[in-house]
Structures are given as C-alpha cells and as structure tokens.
Amino acid sequence: MQTQKAPSEKTASLLPLIRECGILTLAVMVLDTGVYFFKFPNNFCFGGVTGISIVLNRLIPWSAGSYNFAINMLLLAVGFLFIGRGFGVRTVYVSVLSSLTLSLLERICPMSAPLTNEPVLELIFAIVLPAASAAILFNVGASSGGTDIIAMVLRKHTSWDIGKALFCVDLLITVGACFVFDIQTGLFSFTGLMAKTLVIDGVIENINLCKYFTIICENPEPICDFIHKKLNRSATVFSAEGTYSHTPRRVILTVMKRSQAVQLRNFIRRTEPHAFMMITNSSEIIGKGFRGLN
Questions:
Q1: Cα(184)–Cα(27) distance, integer angstroms
Q2: Cα separation of 98 and 264, whole Å?
Q3: Do 67 and 188 contact (CB within 8 A), yes or no?
Q4: What is the CATH number of the domain that holds 228?
Q5: 293 lies in a domain?
Q6: Least confident of 124-133, 143-152, 168-177
Q7: What does the angle CA 256 – CA 217 – CA 262 come to, to the nearest 5 degrees?
Q8: Which of 37, 43, 235, 243 has its CA at 20 to 30 Å from residue 27's CA atom?
C-alpha cells in the first residue's frame, strides 16, 4: 500500500521545478526583449531563426514574429520526428513560449521604427540581451530551440562538426542581409555575429565563476572549521615543506562562490595573518556541491 506524500513534501518536491520554470521564463523575457525591441526594428540578421525571419519578412511581407513562430513550430516537429523522446522538454517550453511572446508583442506593442536614432546603441542591446539569455539557458541545460534543434538532429544522425555547421548557417543569413537590405545593415549584422559568441562565453563564465583557494599555513584547524561550519563547504589538507626554511607547513585547497570567498579571505586575515593565500578564478568546477558530470 502506497502512502501519500504530505503537503509539505509535495511542495518541497515542486520547488525545484518552479524555480527552473522561473529561470526559463526569465531567460525568454530577456531574449524576446532584445529580439523584438532592438533586433527586429533594425533588421539585424546575425543568425538563428530570428535572422531568417527578418530576411523573409523583407522578401515576402509577413510579420517577423509570425515567421519566427512558424519556423520554430516546424523545427519542433522535425525535432520530435528525428530525435523523439530525447528531445528536451526545456527546449520545447522555451521555443513555444518565446514564439508566442513575440507574436503577442506584435499585437500589444507594434513597432514601426527603431526605439532610438542610435543604431550602435541598439546593436549592443540586440547582442547583449539575447546572448545573456542564451547563457542562462545553457547554464541550466536548455536552449532557445530554433537552429539549435537542427544541431541536435545533426549531432544524432551525422558526424558533422556542429559548431562549424551552425556558424556557416548564421554566416549565410548574415550575408543575405547585405543583399536584402543595405551594406550598413549587413555590416552591423556581421558585427553582431562576431560579438555574440564572445558575450555568451563571458556571461556563462561569470555565472559559474568560483574562487579557488590555495592556503599555506601552520595551523589549518581554525580555517577548516570556518569553511565547514560557517560556509558549509569542504576542503583538502596535506602536508608540505618550505624549500628555504624547510619548515613544515599545511596546505589547504578549497573552492567556493565569490561571496563566500570574501568571508574566508577576511577570516584568514584576522585569525591567521601569516598564512599565504593564492586565490584564482575558475568557472569549471565539477563535483558535489557544484556542477554534475552530466
């Protein structure tokens, strides 16, 4: 006989799902803000389904949001057909929500011209907002769908270099902007294409940034107690010897978030002023308490 979960247990089990949905929804809002208010009005075509939609909108007048919705739904169908159950639920959620949000924005907030007369300023927002959204999605194991779905299909059924294949697709879309629009729009689009990868990488690195401590001291116990009890982290300690004085030393290795790192640094300065600290940045920490191997 199965026992029913208590209401508090059910709520606790739902919290991670609610948190994940909130993160995905926030990422979609950031993405669509950058696309609708800055990318669409300026015809910036640096890849992806939104870039294709902008080019098609110029060739065959139909709203870019409608093209975006139709292409995304078609790609979702392709994903289900060729990938099946392996197709990510997060990707479906983000792709559908993003397409619906863009269509809704066209109805409640129509854009007949760019927000400002500063195309460089608008290009910055058109790059940074979608790139930040892509980094957030990547960090939780999701994607915005679109051409990422093509990448999933190619990765499963071919041996192609997916990164190069997607870059070539984005490059073709950007080149198309030079012919469909004008050379200025094309050059802005090339700039966006080159910059977006750098922005995505930078945002991902800052989201995951941790501090790696190498602490050389005589008495590691107070420091380790602080790490365990106050910061709820762990550490590794081993013996060492100074090459000049040949004095025995203990070396502590530990990794933690930036806010915790400030607390640890200040504690060591107060309690072990003669300790030697080396603090380095790391954005790829894999293990318990950080990121899993999957």
A1: 30
A2: 42
A3: no
A4: 3.30.70.120
A5: no
A6: 143-152
A7: 30
A8: 43
The residue segments making up the domain with residue 159 are 10-207
Let me know: does 213 contact 255? Beta carbons within 8 Å.
yes
Could you give the CA distance from residue 147 to residue 138 in angstroms, rounded to a whole number?
A: 14
Query: Which residues are within 8 A (CB) of 26 and not within 5 positions of it... i.e. 6 or more apart?
Result: 136
Which strands sit side by side in the sheet containing 276-282, from one edge to the other?
236-241, 248-257, 210-217, 276-282
Q: Which tokens sit at 272? A: 């072990």
| 255: its two tokens | 């990794």
- Residues 214/251, Cβ–Cβ less than 8 Å: yes
132 plus 233 within the same structural domain: no
Structure tokens at 218: 């005589």
Beta bridge partners of residue 216, listed in sequence order? 251, 276
pLDDT tens-digit map of 96-113 = 899 899 989 989 998 888
**pLDDT at 45 > cutoff 70:** yes
239: number of Cβ within 10 Å: 8
Distance CA 2, CA 263 (A): 46
The two structure tokens encoding residue 34: 């950058």
Task: State phi, psi for 255 to the nearest 5 degrees.
Answer: -135, 140
Tens-place pLDDT, residues 153-177: 776 677 776 667 777 778 888 888 8
Residue 40 in contact with residue 115, Cβ under 8 Å?
no
Neighbours of 289 (CB within 10 A): 11
Q: Which amino acid type is present at position 53? A: S
